[in-house]
Amino acid sequence: MKGGMFEAGDIAVYPAYGVAVVEHIERREVNGCSQSFYVLRILNNDVTIMVPTDNAPKVGMRQLINKRKVNKVYDVLKDFKSANLDTSETWNRRYRNYRQRIRSGSIMDVASVLRDLYLLSKNKELSTGEKRILDSARNLVVKEISFACQKEEAKVWSEIENAFKNGNKKRKKKS
Q1: How many other CB atoms are found less than 10 A from the CB of residue 69?
Q2: Whole-prediction pTM value?
Q3: Residue 44: what pLDDT?
Q4: What domains can be seen in the chain, in order of their start residue?
Q5: Consecutive 10-residue runs of the chain (175 residues): their mean pLDDT?
């Protein structure tokens, strides 16, 4: 990545889709105007999408997190005090809130959704939509940490589960 622009071969994160490789940059005519697009291949499912280069920052496309930020992600996952476990809200309102947080592009927001839904699933049955969001958040967080730390995804998920266990121990001690 040079000067805020991605280059072919760069690894990027596209909100709600996850880790992607910039396959190439191409110019296309759109409504009579020539425009540049990043052609991204989402690594989770090999889907190819095009993102206007000018819109990339606006839609939350960003660089992969570094190893230092990975520790902060684990801190969010273990921070049970900040979890939003309000079940008085209807499931569809919670669902919209979770989707919005995932679409923000912030790994910290996605990690908080993962933590909240993981904890909620321990106390009650999740709706089908919430289960899909939980899976999506898990995949997004695991994939990004896996790439950032160059670890196998199974190892990363094991570490996340340990973070949840450690967060739960702290919560029980304070109760």
Answers
A1: 14
A2: 0.86
A3: 85
A4: 11-62 (2.40.10.170), 65-174 (1.20.58.1290)
A5: 81 92 94 93 93 91 93 94 82 88 92 94 89 94 95 96 77 51
- Which amino acid type is present at position 163? A
Q: Tokens 């919005």 belong to which residue?
A: 100
Query: CB burial class (10 A; 0-12, 13-18, 19+) of residue 130?
Result: buried
Contact of 65 with 73, CB cutoff 8 Å: yes
Instruction: Give me the torsion for CA of 148, 149, 151, 154, rounded to 10°.
Output: -70
CA 52 to CA 123: how far, in whole Å? Answer: 42
Q: What amino acid is encoded at 103 in this protein?
A: R
Helix (H, G, I), strand (E, B) or coil at 84: coil
Predicted pLDDT at 175:
47
